[in-house]
Structures are given as structure tokens and as C-alpha cells.
Design brief:
disordered N terminus; about 180 residues; 5 helices; alpha+beta
């Protein structure tokens, strides 16, 4: 089996995605979710984007750990980083334990997509991570949202893609031009 994975590393991921899709589309009806029949994708997206704005506002007001515990789904959430997947809201929030007091993360949603059933949405936007006034990373983020049984938006998957770091050239220009 390990030889097959080495030859086709994406095949196992593809199979896992197919299984997850099959489970998500199964006929089980006792999951406790209800669809908003009066919803449109536009209304759903605006509602999810407001939850995203409320999430970042809570980070500023109550701190990273409290906000992530509140807005991430307690059991089904995950944050995906290069080479690492952190699952559950508690483990994601624990990642901020010991952060310096001036460590901040801010984001602004600027778009996304949503279901017409009113229970799923994906938001995207720009984010910035700072240590005081020093930028640590900037880039784009994606958050997948799902409404829980109480009708509250909970983030289930989050990931970021940092902008490439541009380093200025220090080599002198042969024509003597600056920069």
C-alpha cells in the first residue's frame, strides 16, 4: 500500500475526498440542521460575511483564544496550514496560548459563495498578522461556514495563503540606475 501512495500521492487524498463527499450527501436526516427555504445565496453569503466580520471584531475585543473558541465549530472545525491540520476549536484556540500581548490577526471578508439552502457558505478576504507594528504575514484567507442547530454560523474549515515575500535586489544596476 505504501508503494501505491508513493507512486500516486494524490490518489489517497482523492479517495478520502470522495468518501467525505459521499458521507456528506448521504440520506441521514437526523443531523439537526434545517434549511432556510426563504434564503437566497446572496442573503446567505451576506449573513456569513457578517459572522466573519463579527469574528474579527471579537478577536479585537476579547482576544484570539476566546474568539476562536466561540466561532469555530467545537468538534468539526479544522485549520489547515502547510503540512499541518489542527482539528477542533479547543486545539485551534490552544495554538494562541503564549502569544505575545502585541500579537494580532485581523481580516476583512471581501467575497465568497453560499448555498441557496441557507446553511453553508465560504468567505474569503485579506488578512494580516502583526507583532506590534511589525507585519509578520499578509495574504488571503478562506473560511468555510456551516449553521449549527441553533442557527448560528460556525467556521468548520479555515486556511490562509500568504502573499509572496518580495525582497529588494541589493545588486547594483550595471547602468547605475537606483533600486
Amino acid at each position: 500500500m505504501t508503494t501505491a501512495i508513493k507512486r500516486h500521492p494524490y490518489r489517497a487524498a482523492f479517495v478520502a475526498m470522495l468518501i467525505a463527499l459521499a458521507v456528506a450527501c448521504s440520506a441521514s436526516t437526523d443531523i439537526g440542521l434545517t434549511a432556510d427555504v426563504g434564503s437566497t445565496p446572496e442573503k446567505t453569503l451576506e449573513s456569513a460575511m457578517q459572522a466573519d466580520r463579527d469574528f474579527t471584531a471579537m478577536v479585537k475585543k476579547d482576544g484570539l483564544k476566546a474568539a476562536f473558541l466561540h466561532y469555530m465549530d467545537p468538534a468539526d472545525s479544522m485549520f489547515i496550514e502547510p503540512g499541518v491540520v489542527t482539528a477542533t476549536a479547543a486545539k485551534i484556540a490552544d495554538g494562541f496560548t503564549g502569544s505575545p500581548p502585541d500579537f494580532t490577526i485581523e481580516w476583512i471578508p471581501d467575497g465568497g459563495h453560499a448555498s441557496s439552502s441557507g446553511d453553508m457558505a465560504v468567505t474569503t478576504g485579506r488578512y494580516a498578522v502583526n507583532a506590534g507594528t511589525t507585519p509578520v504575514a499578509v495574504g488571503r484567507y478562506i473560511t468555510s461556514w456551516r449553521k449549527n442547530a441553533a442557527g448560528e454560523w460556525k467556521a468548520i474549515i479555515g486556511t490562509t495563503a500568504a502573499d509572496p515575500v518580495v525582497t529588494p535586489s541589493t545588486a547594483p544596476d550595471p547602468e547605475g540606475r537606483p533600486g
